[in-house]
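Good morning,

Both structures are done.
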Amino acid sequence: MKVSEAQHNDVVEPGHVYIAPGSHHLELARSGSHFVCALSDAAPVSGHRPSVDMLFRSGARTVGSAGIGVILTGMGKDGAEGLLEFRRAGATTLGQDEESALIYGMPRVAFERGAVMRQYSLAHMAGAILEACEAASPASGLIRAG
């Protein structure tokens, strides 16, 4: 997979991973028939910019049930509320399990709030994501977020 720091208005391409720049929120937006990366220097959310809550909330608004949200190891609660919104929009939501997480803060809070449908070890997460992608309809325009 190709990995790069997201630029504002990058067209989201299959097989490409977009990382939020350290100074901006990364959100998913639609431009015509394409999904694009939207960068924002809006105020920090729960003390974070970038905030994964912002990314997951944009996924809920933009792709809803066609999305897959994944939350991995990390300190604090960023991402829990956004992932819950994503799940309520019908997305598949996955979280890293306690045994394999270096810091089980973010995935724990998301799991406890009901945002995580299933937990997996880090060693099994890639397979779980691919399985969720295969289960989605090819015509759905699936976007992977998180």
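Second structure follows.
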Amino acid sequence: MVTELGTNLARRNLHFGFGFLTSQAGFDIPFHLISWSIFNSYGRVLLVSLLNTLLVSAMGVVAATLLGLLVGIMRLSVNWLLRNIALAFIEFVRNTPQLVQIIFWYLAVLQTLPSPRQSIVIPGGLLLNIRGLYVPDLIMREDGSLLTWLAGFCLAATPFLWHLPLFGRRLGAKAFGLPVIAAALLAAGIERIEFPALTGFNITGGTQVPPELVALWAGLSIYAAAFIAEIVRSSIQAVPQGQSEAARSLGLRGGQVLFLIVLPQALRMMVPQLTSQYLNLIKSSTLGAAVAYPEIFQLFAGTVMNQANKEVETIIIVMAVFLTINLLFSAFMNWYNRHVALVER
């Protein structure tokens, strides 16, 4: 295969190499988390598009987990209406192509929203219009960057400290005091909160979330949530019935039995299945090319490949990036599963 590749490239007077990453890009990127200009290199394009991919993937994982947990619990509700609403949601979403759902959210929902002057006001200071979702912006103090990094470190360390032994005992739920510390550190570094407001014909203040990101986020989250809901339902049903009966014999109500006894055990069972759904969601972020969201496949395997004429190299880089992300994420989830799995005693 390598020999055939070299022969074909030589026939077309091309050579294999990654030196093109230092060449000037010469095009603009509408949405970026870090600074960008048309004078930056293709390597910078790779970094910008990678961060955009990681952003929508992280947002999708969080939203899909919360929505899937809610729908999965509704599937087991004693209320006929709630139970069948959840069933209809699951069957409709799982049997509809994911790409169609993403395009639906972009064209049929977001592109029909009103202009900025007629923005939909959402509680919490949010504005929604055809240009996207405007959310409040946190203006940090000049010396607040260190506090922000410390807050992020506390959040990232929370799952790792769950089973850390301290004075001969595991921290357990006490580790979740770290998010409280993180929130306090973040609040201490905030100078003010800037809310979006209509000024003339434009929205000033706040942060704009482009409609492409909203559509891709909604499509990925809702599609994955339908599968996660079934994982939640089956995991809850897998908890031995004796656990619920024992809890009721102690006088616990239905909600207490679910959230204090059954659900904590079910959450431990569903980690391997959730890992597969999370990996599928991360890989499906490449569908953002259909709505022009500047993720790694749309930017690097699209615009950069066409401009640099380096088809083989760009595809190899994109494959290597996704392989690295998925293997690292899978390794973390496997480590987490080993530490939270139910152990027979």
